[in-house]
Amino acid sequence: xxxxxxxxxxxxxxxxxxxxxxxxxxxxxxxxxxxxxxxxxxxxxxxxxxxxxxxxxxxxxxxxxxxxxxxxxxxxxxxxxxxxxxxxxxxxxxxxxxxxxxxxxxxxxxxxxxxxxxxxxxxxxxxxxxxxxxxxxxxxxxxxxxxxxxxxxxxxxxxxxxxxxxxxxxxxxxx
Amino acid sequence: xxxxxxxxxxxxxxxxxxxxxxxxxxxxxxxxxxxxxxxxxxxxxxxxxxxxxxxxxxxxxxxxxxxxxxxxxxxxxxxxxxxxxxxxxxxxxxxxxxxxxxxxxxxxxxxxxxxxxxxxxxxxxxxxxxxxxxxxxxxxxxxxxxxxxxxxxxxxxxxxxxxxxx
Lengths: 175, 166
Known about the structure:
The structure holds two protein chains of two kinds. By secondary structure, chain A is α/β, with parallel strands linked by helices. Chain A folds into two domains: 1-47; 51-168, Rhodanese-like domain (Oxidized Rhodanese, domain 1), CATH 3.40.250.10. Helices cover 47% and strands 12% of the residues of chain A. Chain A contains seven helices and six strands. Chain A has helices spanning 2-38, 51-54, 67-75, 87-92, 106-114, 134-144, 156-162, and strands at residues 79-83, 94-95, 99-100, 122-126, 149-153, 167-168. In chain A, the strands form two sheets. Chain A has a four-stranded parallel β-sheet with strand order 3-1-4-5, sandwiched between helices. In chain A, strands 2-6 form a two-stranded antiparallel ribbon. In chain A, strand 4 (122-126), helix 6 (134-144) and strand 5 (149-153) form a beta-alpha-beta unit. The mean pLDDT of chain A is 88. Mean pLDDT of chain B is 81; it is low at 117-127 and 160-166. Chain B has one domain (22-155). The chains are: A alpha/beta, B mainly alpha. Chains A and B meet through helix 1 and helix 4 of A and helix 3, helix 4, helix 5 and strand 2 of B.
């Protein structure tokens, strides 16, 4: 008898749990969407989070550079590659001739790395992984500091290696 | 052995029942954590959307929706936990959220993704990121507290008398 009563009690509390949880979730959805609609910095509820979309300015200009263009610039030696990853990863391997300007220590290394690079040079930043933000953040920092021709090679390191383009290991930041 | 009813009545009259302290403390801790965690996300939804994206778990179409709704869900759950309102529902949802956060962290740690910068790292050093491990431990503790509250709510006596349904 007690067992039956206990089962019924658990069923009751279980059903109440789900009903209340549903009501709380509905409340959160309603408040969240309403408040979002009222704010000036509202988010569009469904947005494009592809790397290209995230690297496109509101004006429509994109800072993404294709591998073909990056390769051409590399072989014509008209470009400076900047590796935005931490020094340990840079030392494990990087694009040949690339300098390391780790985003996480950009203030520390900026002067040493950028001292001889004119502001109108073509600069390509890269890191690794489709959604890596380091190269984008570094590119924005360079724009902010007055460098005009900055582009981002999305998935730079992985893509460069996959296509068996020249790579090198070693060297520390600022090299 | 039969319990003396007067002793029990005297205990009740004394007012404070120490057995109620642990669940109350856990409720207040988890509730405060939820409220604190929601504040910055509500103020900076764009930055939170970036953070959600860095986890690489949700499909693109759900990222902004999550960034808009999740902070409010955390705030409401926090308030409900602190005030003890709709406790069964609030505890169930809290456990669901904490388990999801914990699972996401462990999943990303296992596949070598640093959710902080959103980069896939292949080196072991990067995979065993100290910060990520600390987050996992922190969320693991929250999960244990959540589970304690869940079983407390599920198995405590006189549930029916104490909770109001929505």
